[in-house]
Amino acid sequence: MFTIRKKELLANNIYLMDIEAPRVAKSCHPGQFVIVKMDEKGERIPLTICDYDREAGTVAIVFQAVGESTKRMADYEVGDTFRDFSGPLGCKSELIDEDPEELKKKSILFVAGGVGTAPVYPQVKWMHEQGYNVDCIIGARNKDLIILEEEMKKVARNVYVATDDGSYGFKGNVNDKIKDLVNNEGKHYDHVIAIGPIIMMKFVSILTKELGIPTTVSMNPIMVDGTGMCGACRLTVGGEVKFACVDGPEFDGHLVDFDESMKRQQMYKTQEGREILKEKEGATHKNGGCGCGGND
Amino acid sequence: MDMLTRIPVREQDPKVRAKNFEEVCLGYNQEEAQIEATRCLKCKNAKCITGCPVSIDIPGFIREVEAGNIEEAYHVISQYSALPAVCGRVCPQESQCEERCIRGIKGEPVSIGKLERFVADWARENGIQPKAAEVKNGKKVAVIGSGPAGLTCAGDLAKLGYDVTIFEALHEAGGVLTYGIPEFRLPKDTVVQSEIENVKVLGVKIETNVVIGKSTTVDELLEDEGFDAVFIGSGAGLPKFMGIPGENANGVFSANEYLTRNNLMKAFDVSYDTPIVAGKKVAVVGGGNVAMDAARTALRLGAEVHIVYRRSESELPARVEEVHHAKEEGIIFDLLTNPKEILVDEKGWVKGMTCVKMDLGEPDASGRRRPVEVPGSEFELELDTVIMSLGTSPNPLISSTTHGLDINKYKCIIADEEKGQTSKEGVYAGGDAVTGAATVILAMGAGKAAAKGIDEYLTNK
Ligand SMILES: Cc1cc2nc3c(=O)[nH]c(=O)nc-3n(C[C@H](O)[C@H](O)[C@H](O)COP(=O)(O)OP(=O)(O)OC[C@H]3O[C@@H](n4cnc5c(N)ncnc54)[C@H](O)[C@@H]3O)c2cc1C
Ligand SMILES: Cc1cc2nc3c(=O)[nH]c(=O)nc-3n(C[C@H](O)[C@H](O)[C@H](O)COP(=O)(O)OP(=O)(O)OC[C@H]3O[C@@H](n4cnc5c(N)ncnc54)[C@H](O)[C@@H]3O)c2cc1C
Ligand code: SF4
Ligand code: SF4
Ligand code: FES
Ligand SMILES: [Mg+2]
């Protein structure tokens, strides 16, 4: 059992929780993720490690209540426990093993979209602790969805906020802001790390390819085990099939087949729609023999 | 009574069971078991034992069954096997113990597996458990993976007085017994869970959600966590795909994913959150036990199911009993057929599969006749789901994070057969992680051998 030590509402529908998980806290690195299973009947939910305290033995997760499971998770309070909390999974961010001298010479831009700001934060924090300066764009549809801005300001050299509707900061999407920085403010970047919705990562990668800036993205396909056993998380990178849970989740944004990944993310949409139906209609929803809801 | 034929075992009617996840085979009752036991000749030189990878004293336990001493029969089996209710169900007995049975020379061999299952089920129903070691020796052993290899190794070491902890990556113990083999062949809550409980009764601790290579490493277990030896029984879980066009389409699954969603995550039960795309018309590519399990699962979820296999029926690697059951239930076998491409609709979902007919040519390295394409025989199967069941290989997570652990070109850990010793001192391995995908009982045999190896090593150290 893994106890929730802290719970905070960061923005509308976006929660941060500190979970007591000493083994994970001891060995995790930025870029990795965990799998949470709330209780006996819960799904295995992959979530990025957003911060960790090795001494206190806690790991922070930030999640957006978007569907059945994450909504249920939002109802958990401090002192409640998750049945399972497995990790760290996936590879650590490539920056961590890069030669410090090389890294020092580089100018790095992080691009965070929506709840993707959460996984960007530990990486920027790590860079800050090692003495590197990086810039960070935080983008969201509107002001209410901007998270971790204050925390980010403490660890990044420059934080630029961009909202689609202009309700806060720069008016426009993150790509507009990248162009603004490079074209109008004369900024130069050697590497971009973009984490957010797939569609955002796709368009950032198209832009940075034009600008000639190497780009890393963090993919979040559907997962089951997270250990390389099922292949649900497969995606195509540079024409090769990779398993995001063991080969990633970070990949070269200029090589990822984003369109395929976007389609694969939709795979259980109708299934989950049925879950909501089930909630509404109760037992009458059960039909089609097995009652799994997938065969009618 | 005709001593040449075995007492038939009761099964659920194929029409009924094709729609549920209840166990297919119902097993013997005590009366049937006792009659079947009389067929055993209690051979002095019992050939059957030589066919059992853990050398169960088969005539010994059958003698007790015949006399009606079922508890005693259970204690005989427990000396050799930690998972009799599992093995009695899933061992390929026909090619192991039963193949060598003297009774089988003239008639049908003794139903050793079904008798073993009866004894184990009876013990469970009557609350009989194995006996724990009385004295602890104070030495700590870590076991990685809670499949049959790990459970057996852990159980044997605990009986010898070792302090054993199993580390399991998933949230439930059991390995393939839990995530792979379906409920209708191997019930989870009753059979698998209770055999795992029996290993715990011996004093073994099981820590789930620990991924060795990520949460901690073999080196750290030895250097920082105070373990005197490590056994690696991490299986061969990495699924293979064919590499044909369309394979990443929505609706294409590895058998592991399909089975994991259903067995480990219980997607067939609506009260569990994990979804499954069951499919209406499903093709399962492959012909092994895993393919049969995936096919029969899809059938129970309401689909029309085709097995697509490139050789002919006699080359099907699955157990005869499984093929027979699959046919009875209505699985369609498209033999001598090989997929070329998966056809995808505009939204990215499977809509069909182009296949080609095959002929059997000259024998290949495996001694089986090699399938060759029949030119111009391409045809399309209309489908919404494809399940790839092409075999699995060991996951490199552990080998790539352990210093000095040698693997072969198939990524299998190199370990000697007799004692499970690897290239690294204090580290032993066995089961699918060493051999590649094999069987439950071979994994158990390897776990047993390694327990002996570890005991010798730590006793002499
Ligand atoms: C490596 C990784 C890291 C992630 N990190 C975060 C994070 O830090 N914060 C956060 O809010 N979300 C994160 N996600 C996404 C998160 O796992 C999903 O939002 C969550 O599983 C949705 O569950 P649901 O039942 O509430 O919603 P659903 O209604 O089931 O699904 C909503 C969306 O989530 C996707 N999804 C559903 N099930 C899974 C699954 N098992 N694996 C992956 N995606 C799924 C669906 O494609 C859909 O787009 C991450 C995903 C991955 C793979
Ligand atoms: C669908 C299916 C049906 C089968 N049917 C039969 C049958 O009828 N009869 C038969 O004899 N055999 C059958 N087999 C084969 C048999 O199940 C395997 O040969 C056997 O389970 C191997 O045992 P094992 O202990 O070596 O590994 P596994 O059972 O694979 O267990 C390995 C365990 O190690 C864990 N693990 C892996 N990596 C790590 C890590 N890094 N850290 C911690 N834990 C880790 C895994 O999660 C898993 O729980 C079947 C296999 C499948 C997939
Ligand atoms: S464990 Fe398997 S091989 Fe050994 S006696 Fe039992 S059924 Fe036969
Ligand atoms: S070989 Fe057959 S008949 Fe002889 S002891 Fe074994 S099971 Fe009995
Ligand atoms: S989630 Fe199963 S292989 Fe990646
Ligand atoms: Mg969900």
TrEMBL record, chain A:
Give the Gene Ontology MF terms in alphabetical order: 2 iron, 2 sulfur cluster binding; flavin adenine dinucleotide binding; metal ion binding; oxidoreductase activity
Q: Which cofactor does it need?
A: FAD; [2Fe-2S] cluster
Q: How is the cofactor bound?
A: Binds 1 FAD per subunit.
Entry keyword Iron:
yes
Per the database record, which ranges form the FAD-binding FR-type domain? Answer: 1-95
List positions binding [2Fe-2S] cluster: C230, C233, C245
Designated name of the protein: Ferredoxin--NADP+ reductase
Automatic annotation (TrEMBL), chain B:
Q: Name all Dihydroprymidine dehydrogenase domain ranges.
A: 17-127
- List the Pfam families hit by this protein, alphabetically: Fer4_20, Pyr_redox_2
Q: Give GO terms: molecular function aspect only.
A: iron-sulfur cluster binding; oxidoreductase activity
Q: Which residues form a coiled coil?
A: none
FAD/NAD(P)-binding domain residues are: 139-447
Q: Which domain of life is it from?
A: Bacteria
NCBIfam families, alphabetized: gltA (TIGR01316)
- What is this protein's name? Glutamate synthase (NADPH/NADH) small chain
